[in-house]
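Hi all, posting the design record for the shared folder.

TITLE: backbone redesign
STEP: 1 of 1
STRUCTURE INPUT:
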């Protein structure tokens, strides 16, 4: 058997079904067909709602996607950067509520970002 010289991976967002529940299964079938066509792993875009990611992983496993799914983790380094990067994401209101009073204190924002990502990572 010949060895592989490269791997294919698919970068995805875990939450299209959150926007429109009817899209969830269509999106998952499309993702499954990409894996069937040769993708070796799935790399998830950044997220801050671990429940959405875990539900996405469970849905993938339910339809037979067994390849590794790598969570996209991006700590919050500063408030403006966070708003810029997450403009296309679903963000929990409590994250915004926690960041708003400290948005001008870069060290406090970084500290909160680290705390948030560690909290997410512990759930995996």
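Okay, here is what came back for every position:
SEQUENCE:
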């Amino acid at each position: 058997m010949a060895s592989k010289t490269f791997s294919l991976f698919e970068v995805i967002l875990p939450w299209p079904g959150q926007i429109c529940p009817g899209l969830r299964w269509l999106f998952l079938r499309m993702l499954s067909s990409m894996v069937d066509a040769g993708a070796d792993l799935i790399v998830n875009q950044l997220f801050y709602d671990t429940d959405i990611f875990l539900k996405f992983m469970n849905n993938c496993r339910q339809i037979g996607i067994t390849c590794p799914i790598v969570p996209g983790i991006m700590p919050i380094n500063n408030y403006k950067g966070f708003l810029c990067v997450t403009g296309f994401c679903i963000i929990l209101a409590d994250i915004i509520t926690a960041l708003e009073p400290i948005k001008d204190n870069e060290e406090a924002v970084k500290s909160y970002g680290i705390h948030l990502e560690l909290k997410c990572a512990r759930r995996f």
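COMMENT: The chain has two domains: 1-72, 75-124.
Let me know if anyone wants the other runs.
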